[in-house]
Design goal:
Structural class: mainly alpha
Shape: globular
Order of helices and strands: HHHHHHHHHHH
Helix content: over 70%
Strand content: under 5%
């Protein structure tokens, strides 16, 4: 039986190994879990439609104001609620897929929808605890470390609400600094990779665009066409390239962070079980 907490190197490399094995399930589920964020754009679309179509003039009529204002509020508030619920369900589905390697995309979504109500209450209470506690007597980082594993307690142990938070805190007690060091290393990994990958990607694009422009110019001269290729269409690839890099970062680091936290949680749980058996 292991009597020490999983090391930083083992945690980071182990997370990569799990990600490689589960990528076909976790990466699509990661992007799927983020799609409900599109609902947050709906209120802006409603307001823009009213402004552009000059329908705002109708609200100067009292009868229309009384009847239409609730509809307008519903059109603004309902998408926000749907977006919040969708993000919660997506996050919970991703947690199920990470925590249980036998769970596929369909199974994770089914489990998430089944337990969405208790998870919404649990998430609200967790955020309230962190916010209120940081205002009263503890730095927020203390609560963040205490409750970092509460979602896995919710998923794997079936604990709900306060019990899940208390169980997560119990695992961390006596090991706060060790746990913090490992969580910090996991959160630092994206920044380190970004510092390496982003400049390299930008340099590649900066090299590729002039090279492509020169190649097209040579083709134009060879065809006796003196007009040089336009630069702006080529430069439009810059934001597209940055967006693709962003997608790659999200598709990797969001599930990778969750995988490492799950591995750390399981290590803490094993240590706790070893102590209880003595």
């Amino acid at each position: 039986m292991r009597e020490d907490l999983i090391g930083v190197r083992e945690l980071l490399l182990g997370g990569l190994s799990v990600f490689r094995k589960r990528a076909l399930t976790i990466v699509p589920l990661t992007f799927l879990s983020l799609t409900p964020a599109a609902f947050f754009l709906a209120p802006f679309a409603v307001v823009e439609f009213i402004v552009e179509s000059e329908m705002g003039i109708l609200f100067e009529i009292p009868v229309i104001t009384v009847l239409g204002l609730p509809v307008l509020l519903a059109a603004v508030i309902l998408p926000i609620l749907l977006g919040m619920g969708g993000l919660l369900a997506g996050g919970l589905a991703l947690t199920y897929a990470v925590a249980d390697e036998d769970t596929g995309i369909g199974g994770a979504i089914a489990k998430a929808l089944k337990n969405l109500g208790p998870f919404a209450w649990f998430s609200a209470w967790k955020e309230f605890q962190i916010f209120a506690g940081s205002l009263l007597y503890f730095p927020g980082i203390v609560f963040q470390v205490w409750y970092a594993f509460a979602p896995f307690v919710f998923v794997l142990e079936g604990q709900r609400g306060i019990n899940a938070l208390a169980r997560s805190r119990h695992y961390v007690e006596g090991r706060w600094s060790e746990v913090f060091k490992r969580l910090f290393a996991v959160s630092l990994a994206p920044a380190v990779v970004l510092l390496v990958v982003l400049p390299a990607a930008l340099m590649t694009v900066m090299f590729f665009v002039p090279l492509l422009w020169s190649f097209l110019a040579i083709l134009g001269l060879a065809a006796d066409e003196m007009a040089f290729p336009p630069v702006l269409p080529l430069l439009s690839g810059y934001p597209i390239g940055i967006f693709l890099i962003f997608l790659l970062m999200v598709g990797f680091f969001l599930p990778y962070d969750m995988i490492c936290k799950c591995m750390l949680y399981k290590s803490l749980r094993v240590l706790e079980e070893n102590v209880s058996q003595k």
